[in-house]
Amino acid sequence: MGRLFKNSWALFLGYGILIIAHGLQGNLLGVRAVIENFNIIATGALMSGYFIGYFIGANAVPNLVGKVGHIRVFAAFASMASLSILIHAVIVNPYIWILGRFLTGFSIIGIFIVVESWLNDRANNRTRGKVLSIYMIITFVGLGIGMLLLNFNDPKNYEPFILVSLLLSIALIPILLTKRKPPTFKKISAIKITELYKISPLATVSMFCTGFIHPAIFTMGSVYGALMNFSVFEISLYLFLITVSGALFQWPIGYLSDRFDRRIIIISTSIMGAIFTIFCFFSVTESPDFINLSSDWKTIIHHISNHRLIFYIFISLYAGMSLPLFSLNLAYVNDFLPKEKFVSAGAGMQIIFGISAMTAPFICSFFMKNLGTNGFFIFLFIFQSIIGLFGIYRMTIRSTETIPLSENTFTPLPKNITPVGLQLDPETGIDLSTSDNEKK
Q1: Nearest residue to 81 via CA among 164, 203, 176
Q2: Which of 164, 255, 293, 427 has the most CB atoms around its CB within 10 Å?
Q3: How far apart, in whole angstroms, are the C-alpha atoms of residue 325 and residue 265?
Q4: For residue 270, what pLDDT band results from cuts at 50, 70 and 90?
């Protein structure tokens, strides 16, 4: 482990600083959009802009890396990400902010691809699991710190935007000063969506729905808090709890999924997640406009909604049930594939995730506009329920006696990992112990 840190500390440090800025940026914009009285639909559109850029970049960056190299791509995109956040501070306009978010998404995915391919080059069959574990820990800790940095300064001011830009610029330094030569990049092909659906309809549909759920949580969550008149500290706290809870629940849920029918775990967590969205809904509202409740129930709900701690508990439990879905979906589809196809299947699954992620915040904003702010939880409830119900349906179609092709196990993964990063999974079977640079 010590040697691993010695060889890769610059990459880990640079990535850690980057992910802190990433955790702060999206939530900062959500709160500021509410302060600026942006239309909720416009706010959803600008949040979707990030995922559109992310999706396009995921397909364009690998070719670019192959042509000009890791260092140039990293420097260019880190600079672009640093500048794009300043656009929001200089020009307060929803249309300009959509462009800024697009540039941020395009830049961030480029940075992630470079960092992950560099880490892959430094990993071998003995250390790949350790590298992935460190990568995941840095991701969740960095996101959590970034969310708490919402308290750095009033979102109405320009200083928080400057802080994000500074962090992104500082992240450049350790990575660009690394001694080791960059690896030779190999583009990863993806299995077609139709083929993935034939392999596992449940994993495919679940990943598509997860693409609506996770982006909504991490982009519209801050908007929801601001519209509900949460203080900046309260918003940062419950977003921090979401991140921590999502990380902590990965291991016990993954443990259970390796020992029982993985479909049952997917169904159970989805249904439990749907139930917790209902609890969250009623823990922060007094009288839903579209539900006729008796005076006794309104009194009970009013009493509960006066205790913010209850909401924190419910939202944390919801995140614990919902956030492991990404890794569960990947693990389940891999159950029916040989190891050499794990990474290409993961790339295909992320395309599915990206298709829905591009529109998730925008669609969620329609729910919040037409059903009230708590339409946020109605949106989440719908897609959580679809996964659970479709899973129950699939269990009546595919026999429980079906034997998977691989002895695959659950691997916890951060939601922002790219297909390149999936190679860090020890089960991919990719031998990176002798990279091209080492052979030279």
Answers
A1: 164
A2: 164
A3: 9
A4: very high
Q: Which residue has the higher pLDDT, 402 or 139?
A: 139
d(CA 59, CA 72): 18
Rounded to whole angstroms, how far apart are CA atoms 380 and 329?
A: 18
Domain that holds residue 288: 190-417
Alpha-carbon gap, residue 427 to 409, rounded angstroms: 8
- Contact partners, residue 85, CB within 8 Å, separation at least 6: 25, 100, 104, 161, 164, 165, 168
Q: According to the model, what pLDDT value does residue 440 have?
A: 41
Total residues belonging to the chain: 440
pLDDT score of 209: 94
**CA 351 centroid distance within chain:** 14
Q: What's the mean per-residue pLDDT of the chain?
A: 80
Within this chain, do residues 15 and 151 fall inside the same structural domain, yes or no? yes
Contact (CB, 8 A) for 354 and 206: no
pLDDT at 287 over 60: no
Please report where in the chains the tokens 């659906």 appear, as a residue: 197
Contact predicate 246/144, CB 8 Å: no
Any idea what DSSP says for residue 189?
Answer: P
The CB-side HSE value for 247 (13 A sphere, CA atoms) comes to 19
Please indicate, yes or no, if residue 431 is contained in any of the structural domains.
no
Structure confidence at residue 293 (pLDDT): 45
What local confidence, expressed as pLDDT, does residue 309 receive?
Answer: 82
Distance CA(65)–CA(74), nearest Å, equals 9
Q: Quick one: 35 and 183 in the same domain? A: yes
Radius of gyration of the chain (CA): 21
Looking at the structure, do residues 30 and 125 belong to the same domain, yes or no?
Answer: yes
Q: Quick check: 109 and 418 in contact, CB under 8 A?
A: yes
- Is the predicted pLDDT of residue 382 greater than 90, yes or no? yes
Q: For residue 199, give both structure tokens.
A: 């392999």
Between 332 and 182, the higher pLDDT residue: 332
pTM recorded for the entire structure: 0.82
Q: Give pLDDT, residue 125.
A: 63
Question: 10 Å Cβ neighbour count for 404?
Answer: 13
User: Do 74 and 126 reside in the same domain of the chain?
Assistant: yes
